[in-house]
Each structure stands twice: as structure tokens, then as C-alpha cells.
Amino acid sequence: MNGEIIAIPIIVLTLAIGVVTIVRLLLEHIQRTKSEKLQAEVYNKMLDKLGSSQEILAWAQSESSQNLFQLPAPERPAPFTRILNAVQGGVVIAALGIAVLFIRTQAVGRGETAAMIIGTILTALGIGLLLSGGASWLLSRKFGLINGKPELQ
User: Fold this and answer.
1) The whole model's pTM is what?
2) According to the 3-state scheme, what is the secondary structure of the chain?
3) How many domains does the chain have?
């Protein structure tokens, strides 16, 4: 019974994170597939409109065709977004862990031990995310990702 109190929330949390990750990856894949289909259609239409090999060669060497053939770089979140996500998650998880530790005082018997373990893990995860956000901010500043110029010391 005591092990179930700890195992059930961990299993539910793991499943929830897994489902969210799979859905996010699926949506990104659908978006990328649509973009590639649209780009292939544009290429095919352009090749259909150009009749001779001389026209294709002249068009391929033009600046507009070079811009058309360049694939957009994959979007990466700005350092601020990643740092703020880590800090926000850290604050929420640490607050949840502290709340569970506070509620532990109201629990009786086996629930008290389980609440202490879960509260301690959540608090440690929250503090870890806060430290991660701080380290990311310092490194981003040092590498010039925030200010635009690296700090040389």
C-alpha cells in the first residue's frame, strides 16, 4: 500500500508527459509535411512553366530562384523564452512541493511518509529548474545570445 501511494502519481505524471510529447511531435511533423508539400508544388509549377532547358538554367541562376530553393531554418526559441520557461516551471514545481510538505503535517500514518517523499522530490526539482534557468541566463549573456555581443573576461 505504501509503495502504491508513491508509484501512482509518478506513473500518471510520466504518462501525461509522454502523451504531451507525442502530440507535440505529431503536430510539428504535420506542419513540416504541409510546408514541404507546398514547396514541392511550387517547384513543380515553376518547372512546368519553364519550357526549354535554357529557360530553366537562366531561372535557376537567378536570385529569386536561389531564395525559393532555400529551406527556412528551423525555428529555435529565443534564450529568454527557454530561460523563462525553466524559471516558471521551477517556481510552480517548488511551490507545489512546499505545499505537499505543508500538507504532510495534516496527514496521518502512511500518507505522511509518502507526502514527505513526494514533497521533497518536487521541491528539489523546482529548485533544480530555478538553478538551471539562472545558469542558462549567465551562459546566454556570456555567449552573447542576450546582448548580442559576447562578454570577454
Assistant:
1) 0.55
2) CHHHHHHHHHHHHHHHHHHHHHHHHHHHHHHHHHHHHHHHHHHHHHHHHCCCHHHHHHHHCCHHHHHHHCCCCCCCCCHHHHHHHHHHHHHHHHHHHHHHHHHHCCCCCHHHHHHHHHHHHHHHHHHHHHHHHHHHHHHHHHHCCCCCCCCCC
3) 2
